[in-house]
Amino acid sequence: MEQQKKAQILIVDDDPIQLKLISNHLNNPDYNLFVAKTRAEAFSVLDSNPIDLILLDINLPDGNGIDICREIRSMKEFSDELSIVFMTGHHSNEKEAEGLSVGANDYIYKPVNPHVLIARVKLQLQQLRKTKLLSHFAKVDALTELGNRRAFDEQIEREIKRGQREGLPVSLLTLDIDFFKPYNDNYGHPQGDRCLRDVAQCIIKECRRPSDFSFRIGGEEFAIILYNTGTSGAHVFAEKLRKSLQECAIPHEYSSISDYVTLSIGISDTRYCEYKVKELIEDSDSMLYRAKQSGRNQIAS
Ligand code: GH3
Ligand code: MG
Ligand code: MG
Ligand code: MG
Q: pTM for the whole thing?
């Protein structure tokens, strides 16, 4: 079982006594605590740490908690994988309702009771763990552990927008295993699944940069997005991947072109389709078709 990571908790309060008090209550080996006394400090901590939970005061010298909460909820990178709990001396139903309506997960009154604080923090972290697990399963292909079709659709949009913003190319590789139907028909479905996992491992091994993203988008079809890489770079990458699969030497007696499992790869590049998602995917697909038509186990761009 994977060891559970420490929860990262940010406490935001302009009152140093409160900060000390809350920190003491939450002093627990399972928690990693960060503190911030201002809005600016809070965002600086958020920028450079994977925070799970924020305990947020409402009145701060350079802003207020309600606006901070609203701002965080509008930032896509945080989505719902961050829990926000107001912790305030405002004993007002209106304020509490407002806090929850701008996206807070909970609202605690000060002075806090340590038992209540600990219990609520624990509950939030449990909820968060479930949310993260759900979003993992929604985006990961269970067979290969690569991103699934849904993850691909989201990522390609994101990377193309980023490429357009930064003026950098994005390449898309569409890959399809050659003669996989005869493989499956002859070796059986469980062996077919093993083959898909082996090919996926080969892909994972070659995607070395943090800006390389790989997916299984269909039965025996894969996609790789290479950020800041044009067609020629993508070609070098694809050739390395093709060689690497060759070295894996997965036997395939029923392939018409090789004794081993091979891939055909189509490549497209945003510079030829003005950063349009649909066109990029279509181009890559038609290049894959060309690679198949030209004899398989090859790359077309
Ligand atoms: P080509 O060289 O033109 O790509 O031919 P092919 O036989 O690979 O292509 P085709 O699309 O006809 O066959 C795909 C096969 O992939 C059909 C099915 O048997 C198999 N397949 C699809 N999804 C899965 C899966 O999840 N597990 C396994 N084991 N096989 C799958
Ligand atoms: Mg305050
Ligand atoms: Mg196919
Ligand atoms: Mg195929």
A: 0.80
Res 2 pLDDT > 80: no
Other Cβ atoms less than 10 A from the Cβ of 244: the count is: 14
Does the ipTM exceed 0.90?
Answer: yes
Q: Which residues are catalytic?
A: 220
Ligand 1 contacts CB of residue 178 (under 6 A): yes
- Asked if residue 34 lies in contact with residue 12, where contact means CB atoms within 8 angstroms, the answer is no
User: Closest ligand 1 atom, CA of 181?
Assistant: 7
Residue to mutate, 176, 177, 178, 180, ligand 1, most ligand atoms under 8 Å from C-beta: 180
For residue range 145-168, list pLDDT tens digits in order: 999 999 999 999 999 999 999 999
